[in-house]
Amino acid sequence: MKTLDRNVFQGQLDGKALGLFELTNGLGFQVALTNYGGRILQILTPDRWGGIDDVVLGYASLDDTMAARSSVGAFIGRYAGRIGQAQFTLNGQLYRLHANDGPHCLHGGLEGLRFKALHVDQVQSDRVLMSYRFADGEMGFPGELELRLEYRVTLQNALEISYEAHAIGKPSLASFAPHPYFNLNGCGSGSAMDHEVMVHSSQYFEVDECWVATGRLISTHRSAFDLTARRPLSQHLAMWNLNGFDDCFLLDCDPPVSAQTVVPDLKLCAEVFAPRTGRAMTVWSSEPAMQFYTGLNPLAHIGQGPGKEGRFYQQQEGLCFEPQAYPNAPNCPVFPLPLIEPGKPKWGKTVYGFNTF
């Protein structure tokens, strides 16, 4: 499998150097990242026969990545998902955010973290540390916020994404989420609807006609949102006459007894199986919720430019598993508020683990 060309990912943004960083565990598992939006560009992992392929969607150069104006591979902040009417009240003060999804704020606004240059603090063969300081009022959000972000590959063929966020001076709100698009058949293989997906959740978040969380949780039992049985996505969508998923699930606290591995202190969010290649993936996280996104229109493009294969990706060619805080929590009083106060940092971790079956 061809690796990415480091030379075509060199550049600058707002006076900060941008580049490509390759992490490996020395056993054939490899991850390539850029500090432009903290994006995962490539994950190379074996199939059941030992063949190595790239299992995430992405772009072949920095120019293509920036021109696409998409969330593909990025680390989302300052707030993942939609905040209704692009505003909220905190401590009696109204904050108006940048609306970039109709009247709503999506993934932190028009110039959220996904379009920023992160500072690279340390690079080793198996990990890279990055950081970014959100300014008070950036995209309308209150308070300065220092984000420290680490990507690390393990000997078990897993990618660990850990963050620590410190409020500076006054309280801030934040919900962070990784946003890679996975296709375990390979990033140029077309539709991922043959993947078998299990989401370990008993409740999902009700949304309005604009996909904004209302503050109500609904049981998944015997509904289209019950993904606890292992079956191909195409079969599940046909069974329930669905176009796809763009929905947030409240994660169950305890891993199911069927879980082959357990990651301490993290919840098992999802399991994914690709029968065509024998690849499997598990998603573990410290976050309370997870957005599952397939795209709703298989004829629509992802992003505004061609991917690594020289063609436009289409929705449902990649699956997103985005662990995060409660969606639209600032406008839903019944939801826990992801408030970060000075001296009380917020931390989180998400692990994408790869194996074969």
Q: Short summary of the structure?
A:
The protein is mainly beta and 357 residues long.
Question: Main attributes?
Answer:
five-stranded antiparallel sheet, 2 domains, 357 residues, mainly beta, Beta-galactosidase, Chain A, domain 5, 2 helices, single chain
Proportion of β residues?
35-45%
> Mind telling me which CATH architecture of the largest domain this is?
Distorted Sandwich
Q: How are helices and strands ordered from N to C?
A: EEEEEEHEEEEEEEEEEEEEEHEEEEEEE
- Structural class of the secondary elements? mainly beta
Q: What is the share of helical residues?
A: under 10%
Number of helices: 2
List low-confidence stretches: none
Number of strands: 27
Under CATH at level 1, the class of the largest domain stands as: Mainly Beta
Overall tally of domains: 2
What's the gyration radius in Å?
19 Å
CATH fold descriptor of the largest domain: Beta-galactosidase, Chain A, domain 5
Global outline: globular
- Roughly what is the average pLDDT, rounded to an integer? 96
Biggest β-sheet, characterized?
8 strands, antiparallel
Distance between the termini: 21 Å
Strand order of the largest sheet: 12-13-14-15-27-23-22-18
